[in-house]
Amino acid sequence: MSRGPVGVVLVSHSAAVALSVADLARGLAGGGAAAEVAAAGGGPDGGLGTSAELIAEAARTVDRGAGVAVLADLGSAVLTVKALLEEGGELPEDARLVDAPFVEGAIAAVVTASSGGDLDAVEAAASEAYAYRKV
Amino acid sequence: MLDARFFHRWMTAAAAAVDREAGRLTELDAAIGDADHGSNLQRGFTAVAAVLEQDAPDTPGAVLTLAGRRLISTVGGASGPLYGTLLRRTGKALGDAAEVTPAQLAEALDAGVAAVAQLGGAKAGDKTMLDALLPAAEALRESFAAARAAARQGALDTVGLLARKGRASYLGERSIGHQDPGATSSALLVATLAETAAGEAS
Predict the structure, then answer these.
(1) Does domain A7-129 have CATH number 3.40.50.510?
(2) Nearest chain A Cα to B74, which residue?
(3) Residue-wise pLDDT tens digits, B2-23
(4) Which residue ranges make up each domain of chain B?
């Protein structure tokens, strides 16, 4: 299997936020967007929270063999991804939690992945979004 | 000696206690958190009890590891990965022995509590579950009853602390005066361990 673009998983407490940020990132990545983005939002009961199963499923969906960058909003979203990574076997082997602001980081990650950047480049671009000051 | 059935009984007792106390845990969480601690743990431990009933692992380590995995996949809040890591890491530290001594459990629990501290980046005094678990793990070297008392005291003592982790930390000074829900559920978990051990002895 040829290695496709790096996949991006967006984990938010809110299903609507995860889906919308995925749409936003895809939209801003431009027409030729090739990177796979999957939203894993909301808890096991469909309300606000974090679902380990949705995260694992999203990571499988976007995995093209080049690694998966996972961005999370806060609290249980971050802790659940970390616990799954430590567990082993739950997420693709080269999945990685990326330390980045959720919205800006997601856009940077999807743009970079779509332009063929490897996992290190995607991670660096997403993390650099922290440095973008607005005032 | 403590065998797989002991740990299974502990988890079943924990599920019953969480069920009983879910309202109080959620009430504590409503004061400084997002009011879902009781219902989240209830969902998680109900799933733990169900999977243990179905799979019945035959070593103490396997019981706790399975329970931990189940919590991570079902809870939906920060308590899922935190308690999941606690049980899973404690279970891994117990290895594949068919029976373990209370001293071995105390040592394994140290490893579990250390993993929780690392995952959450919290330390003693941050008004988290660690404020019950750290003294409990220490006191477990002495006895189950001492561990229970230490966890209970640790949870009560969180009332005066300023929250430094999680959503409660956003409240700053206003978090003082409330008992931490995570420390409270940790004390509950240790209390059911002591009850299970007392039931064993009688």
Answers:
(1) yes
(2) A44
(3) 999 999 999 999 999 999 999 9
(4) 2-201
